Amino acid sequence: MGPRIAFDRGFIALTQPFTSVTPVPMQNNETRTATYGPWLVGLGAALWGTESAWRIPLNELFDAKVIVFWEHVFILIMFLPILISRLDEIPKVRAHTWGFLIFSGFAGSAVGTVFFTLALKYGNPTVVNVVLNIQPVISTLGAFFLFGDRLARQFFLYAGIAIVAGVFVSVAYPTQIGVSFERAGLNVGTGYALICALFWGLSTVAGRGVIVGMSLRLASSLRIVIGLACMTLILLAYGKLNGAALWPEAAQAHPMKAIVLLLFLASISGGVPLLFYFQGLQLTRASTAGYFEMMQTLAAVCITWGFFHASLHPHQVIAAVVLIAAVAMVHHIQQQVEPHN
Description:
The structure is a single chain. By secondary structure, the protein is mainly α. Helix content is 69%, strand content 0%. Helix 4 crosses helix 10 (216-237). The chain has one domain. The protein has helices at 37-48, 51-58, 64-85, 95-122, 125-131, 135-147, 155-170, 181-184, 188-211, 216-237, 243-246, 249-253, 255-282, 286-292, 295-306, 314-337.
């Protein structure tokens, strides 16, 4: 769904890989490495990729905004011990770091995740999970404009290829695009996915401004608190901060199903992956971790195609491979100029 703090889907979604823009401070030339480190990163990313398995059926029980609200509640409960243990660091946080954190919590943790949930509801879930791979292109551009990072000479070549491939992934019947977008297979779900990628990409860039001003664990915990506050205000604005909306009739009819799905979303696809991911990241170079994070897309596609039968046409499969390869090249060439950033 976390998230590509030099945060990328704990600062992409609620909890997602963080290395697309820049490595966290521990990712330097003296980083300890271990052969199993990248596999821990891959395992964490793969578990993040399972969120569609819970989010899709939850869409049948709750409004998308309510799902994200409960998701924050459950994850915050899991993160409370970490947050409490880091409270003494809060007075040291500077104002501009709070600004980056608030934006990241709003754009990535709250709004971006709502659009991802809506995308799964109204679009082809497999297309949605593949199209979201465009996010590193957005976050790299954001880092260029905000932090003055250098762009590799071939960046626009591979970014352009990724964008074109993303269009072909999104269009089920490309020969019909001249007739109408609807006939071509474009739907509102794809639009939601692109909006989600934009918010998550910008959140990743903001996360980079966060991590230089506070510890990773404090930032992750506070981001969830801010996300929950934002979701509370959003529900209040939409008139959904009441019992009937928070626990609608569909959930009342299947209470155990609702609770189990929310728990799985918050744990298996939320808090648990962070444990593997953070440990793996300490033992893996950022340049390597970025490739193992692609396990997230593989896991997501296996679930949406295998269990929800959200298949792709042959040209979409080819386009998906090209998209992922192009994004991998973006990551690779940006790593080459990283020491100069």
